[in-house]
Amino acid sequence: MPIEQAQAIAASRESDLCAQLAAQAGDWAGPVTLEIGCGHGHFMAAYAAAHRAERCLAIDIMRDRLERAQRKTDRAGLTNVVFLRAEARMLVENLPENLRLDRIFVLFPDPWPKRRHHKNRLMQAGFLSALAQHCAPDARLFFRTDHAPYFAAAAALLGSHPDWRCVDEPWPFEQPTVFQTRAPAFQSCVAALRHPA
Ligand SMILES: C[S@@+](CC[C@H](N)C(=O)[O-])C[C@H]1O[C@@H](n2cnc3c(N)ncnc32)[C@H](O)[C@@H]1O
Fold first, then answer.
1. Mutate to test the pocket of ligand 1, among 42, 90, 110, 178 (most ligand atoms within 8 A of CB)
2. Superfamily designation of domain 3-193
3. Is 27 in the active site?
4. CB-count burial class (<10 Å; 0-12, 13-18, 19+) for 160
5. Using a 6 Å cutoff on CB, does residue 146 contact ligand 1?
6. Which one of the listed residues 102, 110, 138, 146 is annotated catalytic?
7. How many angstroms separate the alpha carbon of residue 106 from the centre of ligand 1?
8. Which of 20, 113, 132, 181 has CB atoms 3.0–4.6 Å from 163's, for a disulfide?
9. Which residue minimizes the CA distance to atom 11 of ligand 1?
10. What is the end-to-end Cα distance of the chain in Å, rounded?
11. What does the pLDDT look like over 56-76, one tens digit per residue?
12. Residue 183 · residue 145 · CB < 8 Å
């Protein structure tokens, strides 16, 4: 695809995303729970049902997965969760000023195992810095993966990041995701802001 065409698609997606975020502006008045890469929405549908007073936002880049996720919450009559088709970095760059993230779940993100593909991993220093800018003071980031090398890299990154630190806290809510049910084992890390505003 020519670069101009790719740029035009990205610009159009960004503008759609901003419009969708603006349309939901009333939902962002209080702390927001975000799930990045929600897949078919098993976790977020259960989480939102169990936390009806929380505003929840779940994103993924795959339209069909989001449609299935939306059907789950529609069937359950949930009104406190919004599913958006969005790429994580684009979302964070375009979050409304008033939106404060309280809990962020990153569950079984693509591990990009080959070294030359590590740059595609979600857990990168720059992304974590940008995320921190939109967090409430007591925000927590919950990361879980079945890929041991990715876990080690992410835990080391969070442990040495200027904005984040790992904390010894329990996982707040259990609902197996599709990838979790397939995983023979997994590891979890909870992180807090290093210098809450
Ligand atoms: C390995 S699957 C895990 C799905 C789900 N969390 C689970 O545990 O079953 C990773 C998900 O992240 C989504 N994804 C990958 N890169 C993403 C990105 N940059 N922004 C948002 N979602 C992304 C994929 O479409 C996919 O649904």
1. 110
2. Vaccinia Virus protein VP39 (3.40.50.150)
3. no
4. exposed
5. no
6. 110
7. 9
8. 132
9. 37
10. 43
11. 999 999 999 999 999 999 999
12. no
Secondary structure element (H or E) that encloses residue 112, with its range: none
Q: Which residues of 137-154 are buried (b: 16+ CB within 10 A; e: fewer)?
A: eebbbbbbbbbeebbebb
**pTM reported for the whole predicted model:** 0.96
- For atom 13 of ligand 1, the residue with the nearest CA is 37
Residue numbers of the chain with a pLDDT score lower than 50: none
Tens digits of residue pLDDT in 146-161: 999 999 999 999 999 9
Measured CA to CA, the distance from residue 184 to residue 167 in angstroms comes to 25
Please give the single-letter amino acid code of residue 169: E
Contact between 109 and 139 under an 8 Å Cβ cutoff? The reply is: no
Q: How far away, in angstroms, is 31 Cα from ligand 1 center? A: 23
The answer, yes or no, to whether any atom of ligand 1 lies below 6 A from the CB of 61, is: yes
What residue type is 172 in one-letter code?
A: P
